[in-house]
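Revision sheet: structure tokens.
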Amino acid sequence: MERKFYFYTDQMTVGYGGRPLIKNIRMEVEKGEILTLIGPNGAGKSTIFKSITRQLAILGGSVWVDGREMGQMSGKELARKQAVVLTGRMETEYMTCGEVVASGRYPYTGWLGIPGKEDLEKVDEALALVSGEELKERDFAAISDGQRQKILLARAICQEPELIILDEPTSYLDVKHKLEFLTVLRKLVRERNMAVVMSLHELDLAQKISDRVMTVCEGRVDRIGMPEDIFTDEYINCLYNVTEGSYHEAFGAMELPAAKAAPQVFVIGGGGSGLAVYRKLARLEIPFATGVLHEHDIDYEAAKYSAAQVIVEEAFEPIREETRKKALLCMEQCPEVICCLTHFGTINQGNKILLETARRQKKLKNS
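Predicted:
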């Protein structure tokens, strides 16, 4: 069969016990690319991953790696092409981290599996790439989850694969280790021309690191496309059936729903100054209004999801008198006012007037 992509599936059907869960799956990735799977829990992402890593027999179609059907490749042949990093706990029987990384050399060692000088050099090289040299002699079972993922990635690198498959590799990691892990992964893709297929729950990270995204929901592959085509407010809210709150395309994150009541606080903001206050009020379920915000201002992008009312002016235009009066009317109906701005430019002098009015009315409160 003519080679199409470095890794691809041809009408693959996956499932359990002979019962199909997802049919006719077409997924493909070329060297130098990251393909990320996203979708709600139970949609079938893990079943797909178990099938393309031969943990689970496919029910139909085929999987191809570097122009060869995966089912026709021996374990060692496949291991030289493809490495797998899973989130499950690994039983290491008192192995050191260096020994765990060295186990990635098994496709290249002899029958006894004893690593040679070149293999040991590859171990050190892989550890250095993930900044894990200081872990080499430590007991793998005694290190943190973030450090374990780092070592498992080093083991995968040690295989010298051209494709790495990762199932939710950041699930147990804190923010620091998530960023470190994905930074190393991106470096491998760009500098070593590797192909990567992975799944992520963190939509903000998937949006930033992926070259293409495949979405899975309700037992089907729903879409495959560029991040900018997938991560839209409308589509993500639909994909995850979001009914409380909403996905925020501009921030790549979920926002709490706006409190459904008359505003109790009026927030004078703009230029990102109001973000923390908006989120605090939303968290406390205090309904609020805000203005005057200019269209496309970062405060406006956040407030339109969490505020009960937003007073808006055209982008880059001075606040018009009619807009200021609209904001003033709204502010007068609120018992409290919070001003997040410390400076007022030529286009938002209307907000300075609102602040002065709030002071005279003795409504001004600290945030």
